Amino acid sequence: MLLAAVERRIRIADRLARNIADPRNPLLVTHSVADILRARMLAIACGYEDADDLDHLRTDPGFKLACGRLPDTGRDLCSQPTVSRWENAPTLREVIRLSYALVDAWCDSYPRPPDAVTLDIDDTVDVVHGHQQLALFNAHHDERCFMPIHVYDIATSRPVAVVLRPGKTPSGQEVRCHLRRLVRRIRRHWPATRLTIRGDGHYGRPEVMTWCEANDVDYIFGLPGNVVLHRLLEPAADDVRVRRAETLVPKLRRYAEIRYGAKSWGCRRRVAARIEATTLGLDIRCVVTNLRGGNAEWLYDTLYCARGQAENLIKLHKGQLASDRTSCRSPLANQVRLVLHTAAYWLMLTVREAIPIPQPLATAEFTTLRMRLIKVAGRVIETATRVRIAFAAACPEAALFAGIARGLQPAGP
Predict the structure, then answer these.
(1) Of 132, 107, 113, 105, the residue nearest 7 (C-alpha)
(2) Which letter, b or e, does each residue of 283-314 get, where b requires 16 or more Cβ atoms within 10 Å of its Cβ?
(3) Per residue in 366-384, pLDDT tens?
(4) What is the DSSP string of 55-117?
(5) Is 355 within 8 Å of 366 (Cβ atoms)?
């Protein structure tokens, strides 16, 4: 019920359905595209990531009520074959529009354009077990897999974009193309917002950095170490080693900043380094950025290391909403699945945002929310004039559930 209230508020099923053409005769349609997508999203959010689960859920009173149908006398929901047909129905242009709809949903989630926003970009392994198109063998992961790219706004934990791609490390040209399309779409909504792109070392390609500098986009990327970098940082590194040995502390950390230009870059760029000396030796980590402000410590510890939260959000997306269930043969159908799982992510995140901050569940993971608030036993009673939902008298989260439900209701006149 909470998920249904959230979906009625953000209307993400209708937003996605507008981008899919429906060639059916309207007089003969039993399940609209929006209804099909809505049922699939709600099932994913409740932990039923397989389409064939709808063969059983389509008659469930709670699911029928959440999808806007009466629990007893209402028509049953769509079945697995219907869902599978529509996952495979969108064309390439429609799939692109679906992906852009997620970016639009993120932009519309802000009441007003922010002054600045930081976007984290990262990829994750998605192991395949068949002969899906775009699946490649990845030697690092020792699996045949996809490597979809995820983009998040970690200040709000909201997803921005998810793109299915082959199971290999993205090239600089590919990353530049993805960022160009993403930034162009965002600037249609927010032309004056300052954008910062943050990613690990294999996104810090010269093509990406050059494009960002030419298009007024800030960036901070990890920078793999090499002999030249270590030689330039040797004076600072030697000072850290000596100070640690003199003070006899187990660990000493310092920061340094240099100007460095690789041969493929064609120019020199700002590099911040974190140098740490321990009893096990010396560890140097570097980042490259075009930001002018901030010292080396702030750039590395505060700004760059915050990207670790993006990996936690990917774990929520992949592990707790099963977005790695990309078992369709067609890459377009698998991209549609990623879009639907991201829509389910929006539903769960909005439920969590509706929980008051003092409550422990305000920071809970999706699995905990699902077990404590979503998949709760109840009795659904349909009468001639109303539908009643009765929970157990000992339901531990009854008061919180009622408060969230009231808060998600639209305001009266």
Answers:
(1) 105
(2) ebbbbbbbeeeeebeebbeebbeebeebeebb
(3) 999 999 998 888 888 888 8
(4) HHHTT-HHHHHHTTS-TTTSPP---HHHHHHHHH---HHHHHHHHHHHHHHHHHTSSS--SEE
(5) no
CA distance linking residue 290 with residue 213, whole number of Å: 7
Token pair recorded at residue 376? 């709760």
Least reliable range by pLDDT among 157-161, 191-195, 397-401: 397-401
Going by C-alpha positions, the residue among 345, 349, 295, 293 that lies closest to residue 318 is: 345
Nearest to 374 by CA among 314, 320, 315: 320
Q: Are 296 and 257 in contact (CB under 8 A)?
A: yes
Residues 300 and 274 sit within 8 Å (Cβ to Cβ): yes
Beta strands in 262-393 (DSSP E): 269-278, 281-289, 378-382, 387-391
Query: Cβ distance 128 to 329 under 8 Å?
Result: no
Two structure tokens written together for 253: 């950390």
Contacts of 114 (CB under 8 A, 6+ apart): 190, 193
- Write out pLDDT tens, residues 298-348: 999 999 999 999 999 999 999 999 999 999 999 999 999 999 999 999 999
Per DSSP, the residues of 195-242 read EEEEE-GGG--HHHHHHHHHTT-EEEEEE---HHHHHHHHHHHHHHHH
Overall average pLDDT of the 270-278 stretch: 94
Please report where in the chains the tokens 């030419």 appear, as a residue.
Answer: 214
Host H or E run for residue 338: helix 331-353
What is the Cα gyration radius of the chain? 25
Please tell me the number of Cα atoms within 13 Å of 36 on its side-chain side.
Answer: 25
Q: Which residue in this structure is represented by tokens 């009441």?
A: 111
Q: Let me know: does 187 contact 216? Beta carbons within 8 Å.
A: no
For residue 158, the model assigns a pLDDT of 95
DSSP string, 16-49: HHTTS---S-GGG-SS-HHHHHHHHHHHHHTT--
Tokens 């998600």 identify what position? 408
Most distant CA pair in the chain: distance in Å?
A: 84
139-150 residues labelled b (16+ CB within 10 A) or e (exposed): eeeebbbbbbbb
Integer Cα distance of 233 and 242 in angstroms: 14
The C-alpha atoms of residue 54 and residue 60 are separated, in whole angstroms, by: 9
